[in-house]
Amino acid sequence: MRPSRIYICFSLTLWAFAFCGFTTAQSQSDVINQSDIIELTQAQLTTGADSSVSEISGLDSNWREITLPLMSGDLNPDELAHISGGGSLWLRLILPENAFATDNTQALFLWRYNRALTVYFNRTEIAGNGFRNNRTTIAWNHPLLAIIPAQQDSPNEVLIELHGSSWGANLAPVILGPANELQKRYESRLFMQVEINRILLAFAFTVGTFTLLLWMMRRKDSIYLWFSGVCFSWAFAASHTVILYNPFSFETWIPLVHSAMDICTLCLYGFLGRLASVRIPGRERLFVAWTVLAVLTHNLIPLQWFWISAYLIHLVGVLVLALVMARVAGMAIRSRQTESIIVTTAVSAQVVLFALNAFQMFFGDGSGWDRTLNFGHFGIPVLLLVFAWVLLRRFSQALDTAEILNKDLEKKVAESRKIITQSFEERRKLELSEAASSERMRIYRDLHDDVGSRLLSIIHADPGNPVANMARATLESLRQTVSKANTPDQPLATLLADIREESALRLEGSGHQFHWQHQPGNYQVVVASETAFNVNRICKELVSNIIRHAQASHVTFNVTHNEDAISIEVRDNGCGLDEEAAPGNGLQHLRSRAEEIQADIEWHGSANGTITRLYFWCHARGNRQQVNPTTEQ
Fold first, then answer.
1. Domain range summary for the chain, segments of one domain joined by +
2. CATH of domain 34-188
3. CA distance 171 to 68
4. How does pLDDT run across 199-220, given as a tens digit for each residue?
5. Which helix H or strand E contains 491, and what residues bound it?
6. pTM
7. Which of 123, 247, 340, 421 is 20–30 Å from 134 (CA)?
């Protein structure tokens, strides 16, 4: 499947998941409309100073009417100052007269509140979060189920002691209904809001520890360190949804949680930059400085400005991350990198899930804030799982590559040993061959000097004698043999340069205009010594024939080649060639030389001159085939 299609399919799947989550969240509130379940939204509120439950119940003049959900913005300055100083808020709810018309045991379900509370029914405590010494109860994410005693006395009054913080307090509408039905809802919310996060917290910590160990084994691959930073910082922030009794005060703990969120964004930025190879060190250092400033701001800013500054800082980090993701997504789609596409989609889906939570919290029907973080926390572990898969896949590929390289190295070592052994053997043979060649050249020189001088004496003694003619032919054959022995294998460029230089000297010296043409290409192919010798001789004899017999003024050499096959065309503007009328011009001798090297040679004579084409191969052909050189022109 093409990466672009993977991107589209994965994106649609995650968007569908987000939509299902949204509709599921919406359906949770719809269940409240069942006839046997009542949502209590009308209540009374008072601070009650430090009064006991019995005293609070008797205070009628200090109560004021409110409508749930209770938000921090609903509190007046005196109430906010009271809870900021460590005091409690008291809420009173009067249950409907028909609340206990059935025989079923009734219960109260408090599904979201901030920060902790204790529930009293007719002045008797029936549920609460409890307190521990030197601990701060942070039960905002823990639902509470309060079972109402079987015997109820009028007026069925419910008192709730709500403990807030310096930022205020919250309480969602209270649900009244059959205990067995609310027990199911309680267990569902406890699983959704606490148990799943506890499992995911352990998962993130385990993955972070594992990748940290990988980094310790491969210190140069800092991508593992950045990924472990993502896991640990997210785990710290996610612990806020799990911890019930915290050793820190709420005013100290919340800035630490938001600092962990910004550190998680920074680590995610560094990880993605290294994963997709889009890291820019200068921008990364700037983002690190911004994160340090964000952490200091979270912990030092006055409480009344904390939430505004915190979410503005988070927004900046998310925007920077979104820009990086847009860049990575574009590069991944263009280069068709499946890994980068999957990672980009996973991060984008996480942004969608958090946007869903933000919508529910800020733009819902007033109670949407109770569902915050449910879906976002489902997305982060999926994101971590995708990242872990990519890292493990890369680590596995690195191990496979190392194994292949190791096998290749072992193979090369074995081949090197074999080559060294062969090299010693070939060197020994080469030394023997060079010694034989040197001795052969010495014999050729001796023959040329000794026998050649004797033959020359015979020739000059009686030039007209048949014996002198035979001696002359023998001397020429001897010279050719010595010359052939002195002609080594050589590049085609060297052979053509020699032919061009000698032909130019001879033709221009005899009054001819000489032109040399050759097509561009690779002329470094090596020509065998025998081929080079005979081609050189053929060209010399062609030049000699032109000078002696052609009566030409212009001579052109044109060289073309096709890999190993070479064509040399010699064209003159002389009197033309009549091969049958001129049997003694050495044409048969040229054919003989061409046949020695399995070359083809032909002539075309006319009143405008003669064209001679020599077609040869740099290396000998196994099965000689006749090739018409004119087809190559």
1. 3-21+195-406, 34-188, 488-632
2. 2.60.120.260
3. 7
4. 888 888 988 898 899 899 888 8
5. strand 490-491
6. 0.58
7. 123
